[in-house]
Design a protein that fits this description.
Chains A, B: InterPro entries: AsnC-type_HTH_dom (IPR000485), Dimeric_a/b-barrel (IPR011008), Tscrpt_reg_AsnC-like (IPR019888), Tscrpt_reg_AsnC/Lrp_C (IPR019887), WH-like_DNA-bd_sf (IPR036388), WH_DNA-bd_sf (IPR036390). The structure is a homodimer of 153-residue chains. With 153 residues, chain A is of the alpha+beta class. In chain A, 36% of the residues lie in helices and 30% in strands. Chain A is elongated and about 55 Å long. Chains A and B meet through helix 1, strand 1, helix 4, strand 3 and strand 4 of A and helix 1, strand 1, helix 4, strand 3 and strand 4 of B. The structure holds a DNA duplex (17 and 17 nucleotides).
Amino acid sequence: MLRVDVIDQRIISRLVADARSSYAEIGKAVSLSAPAVKRRVDRLLETGVLRGFTAVVNPEALGWGTEAFVEVHCQGNVSPDRIRQRLEPLPEVVAAYTVSGAADAIVHLRAANIHHLEDALERLRAVDMVSRTVSTVVLSTLLERPPAPEPGQ
Amino acid sequence: MLRVDVIDQRIISRLVADARSSYAEIGKAVSLSAPAVKRRVDRLLETGVLRGFTAVVNPEALGWGTEAFVEVHCQGNVSPDRIRQRLEPLPEVVAAYTVSGAADAIVHLRAANIHHLEDALERLRAVDMVSRTVSTVVLSTLLERPPAPEPGQ
DNA sequence: TATGAAATTAGCCGGTA
DNA sequence: TACCGGCTAATTTCATA
């Protein structure tokens, strides 16, 4: 049900590189007809291997020039689902993870500027379960890329 | 040159939600003809507001089940560009940022499993400029989403 | 806006495990 | 039988002018 063969991986690679390329074009690269490619893509979407297709936007161009990673420490035992529920309404949260170690979660924030970031941090700290936060402001983005289609190991 | 109006924002929203939707479909939503939408999208790509289109893959489905954030401490003064050059060859690095604070950089790693992650960490630590690393293993992903088309502030 | 070219998509058939 | 791919045709979409 979650079988992904070599051809699927090559199709995924193509779609990761350019999600708007046509099935015919992809088919030429993997020696398949366009309908065959569509069938595989539909199956990959259905089985959840592919979650969808999206545009990659330049955050700075949209006025999201400032970002930070925030370690969130919670008081008491909090379920991951409850943390997610509280973080979801904050529009500045672009990603959040529960983690091992001292902190309970790592939250990736994006804001228009330092003042906006400060404001977002304040709202994050105001979430009832949050007891302490440790922020690390991003100075520059060195690298951002999708995971390779097949794990190296 | 980097002007983005309200209609552009709505087009970007649509493309972020589904990069494979047709220009005609987007046009219907923003009350524009398909060629008009195409002109705007082309312009957004040219000015760098849109970087491209990509498929969102389920990392677990492809065997990338383990991830970690790593604080990297470097010895001496190292330029961001040099750090990027050294990180780029490591396929497990999906994102990297220079940051303020004690650490010099934060690296987002994705691996097939804990053993693979350990292996990748070892290769990261072997990079000459790296003096110390602090790893935080991700237990679960609470949230992952693109930034909203317009900043809240 | 309109027109030719290209892509999408559903249906049908054949080969194979 | 179930699965997978190719082929065809109707429709939609694209990219010109």
